[in-house]
Amino acid sequence: MKQSRKLVLYGMAAAMLLATTGLAGCSTTAGVEATGKTSWNEEGARGLDKKIIFNNSSLAGDIEIVDVKSALVGDVMRVQAALRSKDKDTLPFQYRFDWYDAGGFEINSGAGSWKPLILTGRETKTIQAVAPDPRAKEFKLKIREPDK
Amino acid sequence: MKKKSAKCSNAVLLGDNTMKRLLPLLLAALLLVSCSAAKPNFVFLENTAVDQNTGLVWAKNANMPGRQLIWRGDDNVYEYVKRLNETNYAGYADWRVPSKNEMGRLIEYAKSMGYDKAKMDTWPYQKLRQIGFIDVRDYEYWTSTRQSPTEIWTADLASGKVAPKQESKPYYLWPVRGNSSR
Question: What are phi and psi of A107, to 5 degrees?
Answer without folding.
Answer: -100, 135
